[in-house]
Design a protein that fits this description.
There is one protein chain. The protein is an all-alpha fold. The chain contains 15 helices and no strands. Helix 7 crosses helix 9 and helix 10 runs antiparallel to helix 11. The longest helix is centred in the C-terminal third of the chain and has 35 residues. The chain is globular and about 75 Å long. The two termini are about 50 Å apart.
């Protein structure tokens, strides 16, 4: 009797191996299954729309001016030259424009992370109070107001307050991104158990200590996602600096590159060299931080 029960509950060795091998074969068949041709073709077309312009940009930037004006963008440079990078560096005063863009980007990224996380923490932990609940709805409503609609009032207001400079642009970036960032952080904060805070408060921790020591570290994946989006948006922004900053010597790199659409419209090699130098920091930051971007998005989606 005992032998029969044991045989039913614990299968023999060959049966166990056959049982475990079947799912493995099934998974291998799924992995080597039919190719999803529509998705593959769509990905290939999407990749070409990125790779072909990138190839043209790099190819043209390595040509001399006489080769660039011939009009054949796919002809390889012969010989290779870096004179266009030197010309772009001098024409745009690249070090000054780079420093101003870095200042705006750093202030915008740090400000968006801190202010949005504080706002989300206050809203989530005081959701039962009408003031905080309606504040959340007010922020959501701000997402539907694009910057061009309020551009003229913002120009007047920043001029009156003396913020028609890079600092004013950074503050506006923080203000306009507050709604979307608070939405992301609020959804993530709702997944953090309140019991973690209560254990710290029993030990005598106040609200500020709970936020800095517990909440902000737990928000790190989502803060990384918010920071990457803030970096790309503020680094590549053209409209807001061109409208807000009144001093031409304090303009950012994207605005300075506008000269290649006007007085240097035939200097294709110099223009593409300038574009490459401007996009390099954004590409490097994205390649380094893409793991945190995907981690923050997936954690927010699963929880």
């Amino acid at each position: 009797m005992t032998t029969t029960t044991s045989a039913q509950t614990t299968p023999s060795g060959p049966e166990t191996s056959a049982t475990t091998a079947a799912p493995r074969r099934r998974r291998r068949r799924i992995g080597r299954g039919r190719v999803n041709w529509p998705a593959t073709i769509l990905l290939a077309v999407g990749s070409l729309t990125v790779l072909v312009p990138l190839f043209v940009t790099v190819n043209m930037s390595l040509k001399s001016t006489s080769q660039a004006v011939q009009g054949n963008a796919f002809a390889l440079p012969d010989p290779l030259t870096l004179e266009s990078f030197v010309a772009a560096w001098n024409l745009t005063n690249f070090p000054r424009g780079f420093a101003i863009s870095v200042f705006i980007t750093v202030v915008a990224v740090v400000g968006e992370i801190l202010i949005s996380s504080m706002a989300a923490y206050a809203i989530v932990r005081n959701w039962d109070r009408r003031l905080y609940r309606w504040s959340f709805y007010y922020l959501l409503a701000a997402m539907f107001i694009p910057f061009p609609v309020v551009a003229l009032p913002q120009i007047k207001l920043t001029g009156m307050l003396g913020l028609d400079n890079p600092l004013g642009v950074a503050i506006l970036h923080i203000a306009f991104a507050l709604a979307f960032n608070t939405l992301l952080l609020t959804a993530f904060l709702r997944t953090i158990p309140v019991e973690l805070e209560e254990s710290m408060r029993i030990d005598g921790a106040g609200t500020w200590r709970v936020f800095w020591r517990l909440i902000l570290p737990l928000l790190a994946p989502m803060c990384a996602t918010v920071g990457i989006f803030a970096f790309i948006q503020s680094w590549n922004d053209f409209m807001m600096p061109s409208l807000i900053i009144s001093d031409p010597t304090l303009q950012t790199i994207p605005v300075l590159q506008n000269m290649f659409q006007t007085q240097f419209s035939n200097s294709y090699n110099v223009a593409f060299s300038s574009y490459l130098m401007a996009m390099a920091p954004a590409v490097i930051v994205f390649l380094v931080a893409q793991r945190w971007v995907m981690s923050g998005l997936t954690q927010g989606a699963v929880k």
